[in-house]
Batch of 2 targets.
Target 1
Amino acid sequence: MFEELHRKMNAFWNNDRTLAQTDPEYVKLFSDFAYGEVVNEPGANHPDLDDQTRSLAILAALVGCQGLDAFEMMLPVAYETGLTSVAIKEMIYQATAYCGFGRTLPFLKKLNVFLGAANVHLPLEPQGTTTSETRAQAGEDKQIEIFGEGMRGFAQSGPDETRHINKWLADNCFGDYYTRGGLSTREREMVTLCFLAAQGGCEPQLTAHAKANMAVGNEKAFLIAVVSQCMPYIGYPRTLNAIRCIDEAVKG
């Protein structure tokens, strides 16, 4: 599959006549590195990092760093690995909580165009599991599952002037998104790590979610492999920052 991914990415570059004609050296440099060296590097791999998981992580990182053109390029490759329409759409839905609607909407629209061209019927099957009456409690339950008992009552904690943010974190971020189907809790924590690493400037949250990832079963070696696979898309500085946050999460 690694060789197939490399071939498909090269095919994309070759279909982009402008880029292939104006920057053939760049196309070769990036393609050989990202889809040859990085994909096959033992230190950047893990038994749990199959092609579907790798593709999901890269797509999430591209949303986080706002790489819309690269996201469009990666979609058919991800689909070819067997990553489902539901999984990709759920990743984008969840990005709303971490990247905001303004930065997420273009990716949702781009995915819908791709799915339409692939003759996928929209809307997809609903994945929601909560109601307006249950979302707050379900969100707190999910926070406790991921972060521990210290999150019990978090929605009602904090200074009066900002307590509503804690409430929204519980009922919206976790109650509306983390409780949905289509992705496991481990997958949702992984894509959150990718969103935060790719955005930059979110190191406190990145450290917290690195710790949360490990709490739900995504061990340190897996997280380093995920971040390493995302490196060609987010760059060395944010990759190194993410690894530092993972190290801090282990210590803490």
Note: The longest helix spans residues 24-40.
Target 2
Amino acid sequence: MKLTKAIKLGCCALASVLFIAACTSDDKPLTAAPATKGDTKEPNPFPFYKNIEIKPGFNFEVLSWGKGVDTLGGYLLLMSDSVKNNYKSISVERKGIIADAWNMDMDNDGNPELYVQYVVRKNVNDLNVFEYSNGSFDKISFPGLKDNLKKGYEGNDKFFVKNGDLFRSVPVVNVDSGKTTTLVKTIKYRLSGNSFSTSEVKPGE
């Protein structure tokens, strides 16, 4: 009898120990597994990205890509027409850093024009222009500065849109008798028949 009672007491004690151990292990806080090399977040492969909505379901996307020198690489123009289940794209080489992109229809022909602004060198800006028409991207030649503006031009020019028109402010540096002055001139662009023309905006206009 004494042996049987001792065995029962031993079993009860063992069960109590196991129960306490189980409860103690459940209360221990969980620790996160150490990060591995595979968990390292990859850098954004596209230095520039912009989505341009023409109308619901009809979008253009502009994204630049390239590795190594920032000013060298390429960019993509993507057209998505989910209503008509139509998708087009074009790849363009670039020598500059894309700063902005937007849509216009300066010649009012109903075909969207994509304006891609990029920094050619330091503070010198330029534009690439593409018209999307009949399912394809057609590049429109964008004019450079005229000779009277090139003299004294040191960059820091800016493109801007006002009332549906495209303008460019161009600082021109003039040195006369050792005195340096800077005059900001404004250029207005017009588009007709996929050809640009320019005119200088006079003060007060």
Note: The chain has one domain: 42-201.
